[in-house]
Design brief:
single chain, 32% helix, alpha/beta, 5 strands
Length: 219
């Protein structure tokens, strides 16, 4: 019995020791991974010299929006005859890339810069994908309510129809340079249309190219 008990204790000790070694090794690996992890840091969004990526990032949207607005202003397309400001509606901007892009990120930057130029006012009551702000129409339903002072409710005929429409498309083209290198080209194509005549007042294109490893994912 003593011999059996002794053998059992030796087996139990060996199992515990082996488990201890495995846990120690696992802890050491995890500690090493944590120690080698990239540290989080703030980005200077106005002067970012960080590593470029194969996909689109905020710097690319800033470049595309800035060039589009600069071209519109220089062309005189948003200079309204007789003074005043054009009313701009946002039509559809189609994402034709392999990335999941919210095109509103590009449009918002363009809108902000155009508004700041004093040349354009943007309507949120109508748009290519429906109204951006549904409240403009919903508030008019208060005309039927006895609970609201009708003098404070928006009157009929007060909304202003747009003069111009902004539409566009973002296209991606991937080119294989060699077995280890690929090139991604992004085309930001925009059109400013006179709604009254259907004529394009302005068209612009910004091309952004990126070249890197074929192993890089561009979406």
């Amino acid at each position: 019995m003593k011999t059996s008990e002794s053998n059992f204790n030796e087996v139990e000790f060996g199992f515990c020791f082996e488990s201890f070694i495995k846990l120690s090794f696992l802890s050491l690996v995890l500690f090493s991974l944590v120690g080698c992890a990239t540290k989080t840091a703030n980005i200077d969004m106005h002067n970012d010299q960080g590593q470029a990526v194969m996909g689109l990032d905020y710097r690319d949207f800033q470049k595309a929006a800035g060039e589009a607005v600069s071209s519109m202003l220089q062309s005189g397309a948003v200079n309204k005859r007789g003074g005043g400001r054009y009313i701009l509606a946002i039509s559809r901007v189609v994402n034709d890339t392999m990335q999941r892009i919210d095109t509103r990120q590009l449009i918002k930057k363009i809108r902000v810069q155009l508004l700041q130029s004093g040349k354009v006012v943007v309507t949120t009551a109508v748009g290519g994908n429906g109204p951006e702000d549904h409240m403009a129409m919903q508030a008019r339903q208060l005309r039927e309510s006895d609970e609201f002072n009708q003098k404070t409710v928006a009157k009929k005929g007060q909304m202003i129809a747009p003069d111009l429409s902004l539409s566009g498309r973002i296209i991606q083209r991937v080119v294989t340079i060699d077995s280890s290198t690929q090139q991604s080209e992004y085309y930001f194509q925009l059109t400013l249309t006179d709604i009254n005549t259907g004529l394009a007042f302005w068209e612009g294109e910004t091309v952004i190219g990126k070249r890197g490893s074929s192993n890089s994912v561009a979406w």
